[in-house]
Design goal:
With 296 residues, this protein is mainly alpha-helical. The chain folds into two domains: 170 residues; 73 residues, no CATH class. The chain has 14 helices and two strands. It has a two-stranded antiparallel ribbon. Helix 5 packs antiparallel against helix 6, helix 8 runs antiparallel to helix 11 and helix 12 crosses helix 13. It is globular, with a radius of gyration of 31 Å.
Length: 296
């Protein structure tokens, strides 16, 4: 019987008869082939784990953390707080515009206004421009960043981080959409109220503008309560598609029925002049009680 041969270069490795069943199963120093295949290599670890966020162009990584993660640095937190403050100021200005202030009497007798101390229409527009200019700059930086990490191969790990976060994708879309109403006003150099827009166009632009609240959610998303709500909404979205579809299908169908059931023969006593008004009447009637007369 041949003696066992021990390798002196590695005292933990033994070479013996390969046919010996003990060496195939009970040797604690032997690594199974399945474990070797499942063990991640150094190249796999480069895209996962803690080192994942430090791979890519240093400028792209720093830029991404600054814009997408407000808590990554003090400067990012200050920038995000400033944007959220402007969003809150703009929402507060929208509420004040609905009051009976001087803006309701543009080029007329402003003394008749109930709240004469509020801003006038030109002053509201100046505040609108002041609030949305930093938001427009922030949106432009986000678009440039997304283009940079998408088309630069060295920034692929950063791109993976971006597309894997569905919440961040939705917030990025909201950031881009919310500046469209401001661009419409900037092109005409006048508030949207002075433009010849239909009711549907005006409401659509107003809803698009309210998407700017996504910046507040980005700042607060890491709070445990907000994070729990975000996860619940994300996981339940696929199950809510069907109810939302039937909600709009029912109301649109009802609005079409109302529109043709009471046609507009006389513009002076016309209940609704468009399908949008009749559909809106259907939605308000179904979701509230005795409020449709005040909404139309």
């Amino acid at each position: 019987m041949e003696p066992l041969q021990v390798s002196h270069s590695n005292k933990y490795k033994t070479i013996s008869n390969p046919a010996d069943p003990v060496n195939q199963s009970d040797n604690p120093l032997r690594v199974p082939e399945e474990a070797k295949r499942d063990t991640p290599s150094s190249s796999d670890n480069s895209e996962e784990g803690e080192g994942f966020q430090h791979i890519g162009s240093p400028i792209a990584v720093m830029w991404y953390d600054f814009l997408m993660h407000p808590r990554s640095s003090l400067y990012a937190m200050c920038w995000s707080i400033m944007l959220c403050s402007l969003v809150i100021l703009r929402i507060f200005a929208i509420l004040l515009e609905s009051c009976n202030g001087p803006n309701q009497y543009y080029k007329r007798d402003r003394v008749r206004a109930s709240y004469y101390f509020l801003l006038s229409e030109p002053q509201y527009f100046q505040m609108y421009v002041a609030c949305f200019t930093p938001l427009l700059l922030d949106t432009a930086m986000r678009i440039v960043l997304v283009l940079l990490i998408t088309f630069e191969s060295e920034n692929y790990p950063v791109y993976r981080r971006f597309v894997s976060d569905r919440t961040e994708l939705v917030m990025f879309a909201c950031d881009v959409i919310c500046v469209i109403p401001f661009l419409v006003s900037a092109v005409h150099l006048a508030p949207r109220d002075f433009l010849s827009l239909s009711q549907a166009e005006s409401i659509t632009l107003s809803i698009m503008e309210l998407l700017m609240t996504s910046r507040i959610f980005r700042l607060l998303r890491n709070i445990p309560a907000i994070r729990a709500v975000s996860i619940a909404l994300t996981n339940s979205f696929e199950h809510l598609v069907l109810p939302i579809f039937f909600f709009f299908a029912f109301n649109i169908t009802t609005g079409v029925f109302f529109y043709f059931a009471e046609p507009c023969y006389d513009l002076n006593v016309c209940p609704w002049t468009s399908l949008f008004q009749s559909t809106f009447y259907s939605i308000v009637t179904m979701t509230t009680s005795k409020a449709q007369s005040r909404c139309l």
